[in-house]
Amino acid sequence: MPSADPALVIAAGLARRYGAVRALDGVDLTLAAGEVLLVLGPNGAGKSTLLRTLAGLLRPTAGTVTVGGRLLASDTHDVRRAIGLLSHQSLLYDELTLLENLVFTARLYGLPDPAARAATALAEQGLAERADDRPRSLSRGMQQRAAIARALIHDPALLLLDEPFTGLDAVAGDRLRALLAMHVTGRRAMVIVTHHASEAWDLATRVGVMVRGRWALEGPRPAGLDDFQQRYNEVARG
Amino acid sequence: MGNLFRLALVLAGKDLRLELRTRTSIISAAVFAALVLIVFNFARDPTAVATLDLAPSVLWVTVAFASVLAMNRGFLVERENAAFDGLLLAPVPREALFLGKYLANFAFVMLVEAIALPLFVLFFNLDLSHALGGLVLTMLLATMGFVAVGTIFSAMVVKTRFAELMLPVLLLPFMVPPLILAVKTTVPLFAGRPLSEVVDGLRFLAIYDIVFLTLAVLLFPAVVDE
User: Fold this and answer.
1) B9, B22, B88, B89: best to mutate for the A interface, most A CBs within 10 A
2) Structural domain contains residue A102
């Protein structure tokens, strides 16, 4: 369903094939700033492929991605500056400290005063005191917060999150939800891929269900989670 | 162009810092080089082949194998926590990614050569004072070329299950031309001939460098972007 606000992200006819397998099969997506799209679907539905294609890590076999009015395929660098990705993995180097990891990232993005920016990003995630620790010495929850600091250090307009709650206990999950809620702003859109709608239901403004590389459902988030869950089970089972 | 080199230096600096912290490739490559030299030293029959005739081949075979070990780690460090995705996500030209990895690999291999050369002199009891300038120039030129090929092949094989095995299989055939040129240049230098006698060999090494460095920079985006 198109948004009334100017679209920040437009994906049109996205397709991605792996040989004969159609991981994405003509996916359209329009997302305005301030919107949070929850993407659900069974294993192999194409959720992660969609996220990696939006991030520019996978080239679509067909279709286009536009972020902030710029085409990912042609204005690649400008679009990359507008995208942050929280992946399954932290994207951090285990042999560098958190601060070194973030300073390196800030330098890659050409940010002014990388050391100060990195320190601020860690402080925002409550990791200032762990700045000199290495990622592998942290708990899974802290690693996830460090990965968020990395994903947000350049203040991206589009934040993509691939199963951000995986491996977190209830307390760490609540903390992550609160952190993400802080970063939902009128300037930013988020796409959250997850297996469990309840994990990010309150954050979402829209919900999409992918089945076999296509939207089976996509639109504004309905009021009731239980009703949606029932509907989800029906479409996911085909 | 300035930004490209700035980013390449940022990337190379990160790789050097990682290596200085773990010392994984440098120590393993240096130990490997020492072991190869020891094996050659005890396996050769000095009455059959003169040391001076054998030494250039031994030096370059040692350098070749130790370099492959040193270059193996170049992209393997990026597999950790999918860090390479982080590089690909950043607004960094792929050419800068290549140059950063290339500079780091070049520094590692030159360091391994700097460790191997004194060991080689020690084991083979050679006086290379007269040939040192020419030898260093030959090492620089040969290393520039095969590190370019090694960097792109290590980017290609890093996603495979047997990256450590695949790199030497792919790289060694491409290392043969610069190794032959390097040996042919080193033989007269060891024999005390002047640098002017090996200029042709050095020129061919420079041509190899230009061709393969250019090809590697051009091919790298296609290798890393899916």
Assistant:
1) B89
2) no
Kindly tell me if the per-residue pLDDT of B12 is higher than 50.
yes
What residues of A are in contact with residue B7 (Cβ under 8 Å)?
107-108
Residue A227 is assigned to a structural domain of this protein: yes
Give the span between the Cα atoms of A47 and A66, in whole angstroms: 18
B interface mutation test: which of A17, A48, A59, A95 has the most B CBs within 10 A?
A95
Q: Is the pLDDT of residue A173 over 50?
A: yes
What single-letter DSSP state applies at residue A222? P
A57, A83, A150 ranked by CB distance to B226: nearest: A57
Residue A55 sits in a domain whose CATH number is: 3.40.50.300
User: Which residues form the domain of A196?
Assistant: 1-74+159-164+188-238
Task: Express each pLDDT in A117-152 by its tens digit.
Answer: 999 999 988 899 999 999 999 998 899 999 999 999
Domain annotation covers residue A88 = no
For residue A96, give Cα distances in angstroms to A102, A143, B17, B24, B61: 9, 13, 8, 15, 34
Task: Give the minimum alpha-carbon distance from A78 to chain B in angstroms, rounded to a whole number.
Answer: 7
A115 and chain B: CB distance < 8 Å anywhere? no
Whole-complex ipTM = 0.91
In a domain, A202, yes or no: yes
Distance (Å, whole) CA B169 – CA A69: 46
- Work out the percent of chain A whose per-residue pLDDT is above 90: 70
Report the number of distinct structural domains present in chain A.
1
Look up residue A218 and give its two tokens.
């996509």
Q: Read off the pLDDT of residues A35-44 as tens digits, 9 standing for 90 and up.
A: 999 999 999 8
Is pLDDT of A4 > 90? no
CB contact under 8 Å between A93 and B14, yes or no, is yes
Chain A neighbors of B225, CB-CB under 8 A: 59
- pLDDT category, A5, cuts 50, 70, 90? low
CA within 13 Å, CB half, B181:
25
Residue closest to B220 by CA, chosen among B89, B113, B88, B111: B88
What's residue A106's pLDDT?
97
Share the mean pLDDT of chain A. 91
Chain A residues touching B89 at Cβ < 8 A: 55-57, 80, 83, 85, 91
DSSP string, B35-55: HHHHHHHHH--TTTS-HHHHH
